[in-house]
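Can anyone check this?
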Amino acid sequence: MTITTEFRLSSPSLPLVSLTEALPPDNVECVHGLCFEQDARMFIVKIDSGLEIAEADLEALDEVSAATTIGYAGEQTVHNLTVELDDSISQVFNTGSSVAAKLEPTIVTPDGWYEKKVYKDRDSFAESRTRCENHGISLDLISMTTTSSASDDAFPFGLTERQYEALTLALSRGYYESPRQTSTEDLAAELGISQPSLSRLLRRGERQLLSSALQSQEHLNTVSS
């Protein structure tokens, strides 16, 4: 089971944000990022060719130490940029989790980075989120969905996928502890749904669990009598 997430990263230190602030494009497509040195990183970006942004324009930015035009992809110009990283950002990149894969190019805007990534599980995403926040990068979750592989077994007790997801999250976050360690509002935010929707999922899931358990007990009693 994997977790597909869409989120926005925000920090004044994020690479390439200054590009969208200083030059005409209000967004830049970053298709790849490679580690170059401890305090620098190489990014492959695409910019609308009609804007006629030259290497000199890019190298004039404080964070860009080198810019090379690679070629063209449709109506976009492809550039290779070497960017000097802020210390805190450098630590995030160099200790990044290997359990996430980028599904689409990163979109860089003056407000930050928009990314769509897949994680092997919910805990891996939570670790990535905590790492970002510990280094001054806020992560605003837009959506989160669970994908089951073809080899995954059916969900137990007759639960639907969403009921199972909501119940397991609630249990792991201490919702069923006394006193409760989290709220339906917090759980709903993690799942990217409204609080009423989360409450309905829990209620229906709980009913299904009870029904399944009681029916199983009735069957055992019948067999043993």
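Reply from J.R.: I decoded it. The helical segments are 17-22, 55-59, 87-94, 122-134, 161-172, 184-191, 195-224.
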